[in-house]
Design goal:
By secondary structure, the chain is of the alpha+beta class. It has eight helices and 21 strands. Strands 11, 14, 17, 18, 19, 20 and 21 form a seven-stranded mixed beta sheet that branches. Strands 1-8-6-3 form a four-stranded antiparallel beta sheet, with no helix packed on it.
Length: about 450
């Protein structure tokens, strides 16, 4: 039987094969993890649907598999080494929700935006005697190109792809727009054409080849590194970035944290400054709700979020991952510390779940352990702002007419100028810093 790329949900259309965990000819068992796949949402290990033998790997490491595409051939008991009729006899044996060859595409919910769901056809894998390449009834394009097409109101089914296997590239979409074509009549009011944006979202893997001028080593841009590259380019090409920097006195907070360390250790928690900062950030977000929002370009609305899911950037060997502390406003300092520890460990062990990576409303990245003065982090699109924490340094400062040594940190915030202005970002950061410098009742209960 052919083992096909399953529907991973959350609008995922394709994934990169990062690593096969078994070899051709290996005996496999039901629910045994067979392959590690990287999507634009997360890295996950996909289990086997049944017992059997992995006969053949059809999609190699580093290649892209689409939902419904055959990734491998699995021989089940009683089918290995049988005649040519075996595959036809097993035609109807497939995973639930995956469309078999020759079937019409089924409809399913694939995306939710502001409680409005769009219905789209799932790809139907088709294969004939003369072709070995899997084709789909839905246009072949990356998730980023699909998002670009939605925002430019382009029907991808009407675009001819020039990439490998007919894959649609950003150049194809741009050329289609330049020809004056638009999407279906429903894109406009009463059937009239809707204005089309010419702002493109280039994929970082495309572009001119670099010339060589000496000895070099070339490392494929793939896996998490490629997803980070795509997301950063998307953010820089979409959000209007600007950065504001201020300085915070951590002296009082350091003393408060030191007092709480013993009780935290008794609870099995390593207590850092980050949970306190998260609490201060939430206080600021409640006072300045635009900082906890996103711009829905499809509907032309700013979405003010009433929940506080704080992303915490975690450095791993493969690259930066941003797990999310959900409903952080409802957690104590100790509970936040426990959750940060759990998420960080899971991210570094590459065991992080998709659920732990989605739904963020504001992100914090901590560069302090590495050093430096301050930075201008890239907004974690589609969020509106990201905060950068830096090194705490004993610094001479003027206080009440005297020069004293205080423990100071530079804090930076990058914002999306389409939604928030510099004055609002500065006022928000000032509120956060006030909580840090005068902990008071905000941190009484840990």
């Amino acid at each position: 039987m052919e083992w096909k790329m399953p529907d991973l949900g959350e609008g995922v259309q394709e994934g990169e094969i990062v690593k096969w965990l078994v070899k051709e000819g290996d005996k496999i068992s039901h629910d045994q993890h067979l392959v590690e796949i990287m999507t634009d949402k997360a890295t996950m290990e996909i289990p086997s649907p049944r017992d059997g033998i992995l006969e053949k790997i059809l999609v190699k490491e580093g290649e892209i598999a689409k939902v419904g595409q055959a990734m491998a051939e699995i021989a089940t008991e009683g089918t290995k080494d049988q005649g040519p009729g075996t595959r036809d006899q097993k035609k109807e044996e497939r995973e639930p929700g995956v469309i078999a060859r020759g079937e019409a595409p089924k409809q399913s919910l694939v995306e939710k935006r502001d409680d409005k769901r769009e219905i789209a056809s799932r790809p139907a894998a088709a294969r004939n005697d003369k072709e070995t390449e899997v084709k789909a009834t839905k246009a072949l394009a990356s998730p980023m190109i699909r998002q670009m097409a939605r925002e430019m109101h382009v029907d991808l089914d009407a675009v001819k792809g020039s990439g490998a296997g007919g894959k649609i590239t950003k150049s194809d979409v741009q050329a289609y727009v330049r020809r004056g074509s638009t999407s279906s009549p429903r894109a406009g009011v009463e059937g009239s054409p809707r204005a089309v944006s010419t702002t493109a979202r280039p994929e970082p893997v495309e572009g001119p080849k670099l010339p060589s001028f000496g000895e070099e080593e070339r490392i494929p841009l793939k896996g998490l590194r490629r997803k980070i590259a795509e997301h950063m380019v998307l953010s820089r090409k979409t959000a209007a970035h600007f950065t504001h920097v201020d300085e915070a006195d951590f002296t009082e907070l350091m003393a408060l944290r030191d007092e709480a360390k013993k009780s935290a250790q008794a609870a099995g928690v390593k207590l850092t400054y980050l949970p306190y900062i998260i609490k201060a950030v939430i206080h600021g977000l409640k006072k300045f709700p635009m900082m906890n929002s996103s711009l829905d370009e499809g509907s032309g609305e700013i979405v003010l979020k009433k929940y506080f899911n704080i992303g915490v950037a975690v450095a791993t060997e493969e690259g930066l991952i941003v797990p999310v502390v959900k409903n952080a406003d409802q957690l104590s300092i100790i509970a936040i510390a426990k959750e940060i520890s759990r998420l960080s460990d899971a991210a570094r062990a590459r065991k992080i779940s998709l659920e732990d990576l989605k739904g963020g409303t504001f992100t914090i990245t901590n560069i302090g352990s590495i050093g430096g003065v301050f930075s201008a982090p890239v907004v974690n699109y589609p969020e509106v702002a990201i905060m950068g924490l830096h090194k705490i340094k004993p610094t001479p400062v003027a206080k009440e007419g005297e020069v004293v040594i205080r423990n100071m940190m530079f804090i930076s915030i990058s914002g999306d100028h389409r939604v928030v202005d510099g004055a609002e970002v500065a006022a928000f950061l000032k509120e956060v810093i006030a909580c840090i410098e005068h902990p008071g009742e905000l941190y009484v209960e840990i």
